[in-house]
Amino acid sequence: MTTTIDLNADMGEGFGAWKVGDGVDPEILPLISSANVAAGFHAGDPSTMADILRQAATHGVAVGVHPGFRDLVGFGRRHIQAPAEELVNDALYQLGALRELAAHEGLPLHHFKLHGALFMHAARNGEFARALCRALARVAPTLPIYCLAGTAIDQAADEAGLARIHEFYADRDYDDEGSIVFVRKVAPLDSEHVARKVLKACNEGVVESVSGRLVPVSFQSICIHSDTPGALSLVRAVRHALDRSGYVVQAP
User: Fold this and answer.
1) Which CATH architecture has domain 3-249?
2) What residue ranges do the domains of the chain occupy?
């Protein structure tokens, strides 16, 4: 029996002439099935967004919006103290920007996925998670939300009748509760180790935590961040391991 899995990566995370990470988006896109496109607040500008959308269309990659905190200087990895309503408005603003550019390219949006510190905020803060999901149920009721299983936004999306796609983070450590360990700067990783970690999660439903404990994980999508050092080699190793093991990589 063939098993499908989604492989997603964050794309377009530069600003004008500045590129975040190794600048390997064009090489990564053919290897993944869904892309999370930066929409201007933590990274991204209109021309960069449009370029990524066109490239994704060429490779048949599904595109989703990747809203972050209003934090270009900190790449959206600093927590911004703001009311839930303000953060919801910021997220909807970014959704609208990418949705219009995607419509211009003839592309439908496939999903909604928060970035960085805002992703972690929604995972833990029920007030924001519920306010965001209520808003999305009005303006984008068909967009699935990419998130970690069992988090505040996962529960809020379920209550709001929104579909969720649970993720596994190939290039992040996990704690004993099954949450990712949030970092602002990632050290280089061994690509074969990451590939083995992904296969263990896919085949056995567990990941080794930072303390050495085997923690259960449930997911339909694997994420690798394009700004992680050596991201292209990580994506290649994971894609090769999935292909070799009989998984079909495709967007949900």
Assistant:
1) Alpha-Beta Barrel (3.20)
2) 3-249
Please give the Cα distance from 8 to 221 (Å, whole number): 7
**Per-residue pLDDT tens over the stretch 185-228:** 777 899 999 999 999 999 999 999 999 999 999 999 999 998 89
Q: What gap in Å lies between CA 5 and CA 205, rounded to an integer?
A: 13
Query: Is the pTM here over 0.85, yes or no?
Result: yes
